[in-house]
Amino acid sequence: MKRVCLAITLAALTLSAGEETKGIVIDFRNPAIKERIKRCRYARLEEDFEKTPVLTIEVPKGKQVRSLANTVAIPVDLSKAGITGNLLYASAEIAHFNVSVPSANYLGVKFMLPLESASKGTNHADLYHNSGSTPSRCGTRDWFTVHSQVEVPADVKKGILFLGLQDCHGKVSFRNIRLEAGKNRRKSIFELPPEKIGKARYTVSLPRQRGVMSPSRGMREQDFADLAEWGANALRYQIGVGPRKGCENDVAYLRNGLEKQIPEIQRVLDLAGKYGIMVTLDVHSTSHFSKRLFMATREGRELLVEFWCKLVRKFKGHPALFGYNLLNEPHSRELAANDPDLVQQYDRLIQVIRKIDPVTPIIIESDHMSSAAKLPYLPVYPYANIIYSIHTYMPGFITHQLNRDSASFLPYPCPERKIDKNYLRRWLEPVRRFQLLTGARIYVGEFGCLRWVPGADQYIKDNIDLFEEYGWDWNYHAFREFDGWSVEHSENPHDMKRYPDTKRKRILLEGFRKNRSGTP
Known about the structure:
The protein is α/β, with parallel strands linked by helices. It has 2 domains: 3-184, Jelly Rolls, CATH 2.60.120; 195-517, Glycosidases (TIM Barrel, Alpha-Beta Barrel). Helices cover 27% and strands 28% of the residues. It has helices at 31-38, 221-230, 251-259, 262-274, 288-296, 298-315, 342-356, 367-370, 396-399, 421-438, 456-470, 503-517; strands at residues 3-8, 11-16, 23-26, 43-47, 53-59, 71-77, 86-99, 108-117, 121-126, 139-151, 158-166, 170-184, 210-213, 234-239, 278-283, 321-325, 362-365, 386-392, 442-447, 473-476. The strands form 3 sheets. Strands 1, 2, 3, 4, 5, 7, 10 and 12 form an 8-stranded antiparallel β-sheet that branches. The chain has an 8-stranded parallel β-barrel with strand order 13-14-15-16-17-18-19-20. Helix 8 (367-370) links the parallel strand 17 and strand 18. Helix 3 runs parallel beside helix 6, helix 10 (421-438) runs parallel beside helix 11 (456-470) and helix 11 runs parallel beside helix 12.
């Protein structure tokens, strides 16, 4: 392959034949980078068995710090690399050994590129995240590849890449780090002239969906009977496969796990029909391993197409079927530079489904795990009955206070942090604007708050009030799954009994009553 190399600050620019894509390769043997390595007390330069240079940071027990002192800081010139104003695709091979548990989940192993921008502010771009590549930033794991994707504003000129350990001790090694300029970023519909904004089209009229997210496994008939008694008319049903050691990249294992669930899907649809509940089939990816395979490998993308074709052929026309939820909480950080982006992946799935079933609604979720902020970056697809979906648990530092042994919990509302119904309205504002501009039907696939958060009932009520004001479908997360989300458990985090009445359940049932009253 013909390759042209161009020196840039501390890195090398590479151009591949037939491509205009530029990028940065971090060469640890570069004299300037060697000087940066020397500044970190616990860093050293090594070579692996193939003579590839390896950066290792090994922090002794008791020497961990909350600052970035135990990292190597490498400046990179993003402007000269042609990355500014584009997507940046980062990749690295990482191994870590006996890394201690940090005080917060965003600390630990650091592969981070803070970006300072006058237009967008500061973005501490975390290139080593908890999705896809690894379940955590600590412990031991042999060499594996991390992929990540970041939008780089046009007014960012340079950045500093941080490699090392933060707030923990142990050993981490890095090799083969690349920062590549990807495809030009897609525009939000808010950036388009009015004549370029498409209009969503619906040829079927289905009732508003007010219901719940299913447990990940095992619904009994009594569960359907109880939901019907509550007044729910919707169930978002999880179809997922968890990982098994040694199968993290095994598409055949994933295929087999999905196939085994088809009889259960039939049972769920039949029971839902018996009790007057409509079902959204959701390829949920109960673990990040399957999401990564589905999005970031050719074999996984083919499997997702194959599986959806099988589901659609078998279940189209079932009276209890509401729609096809293509993929739960997608995140483009799973993707490498040469992968089709999320919009393209959706387009292919929609095309093959519409050839089999031209009318059943197809639900597509926004990027960044169904973020409200990312919904406007989806196009209005030229197919009928495409429903646009978000999930909302904002702010996560209130809804996801997972340590039930904490001495205290932040409440909702939280006046000192200006977290209240107006905050929720502002967070959902891009979705509302998207709806008004396109006429799209909006489906809130998940929302919720842990039961021991003070004011969790008010959080649920404020969200439902907004969904009802805007005319959106919604599903509470989750029904008889993890006790933390349960509206049938008390506010005491250590009380594991179910109760017939709680404040949160009353709020939910009040929302479901609109189904019976025929509220549109």
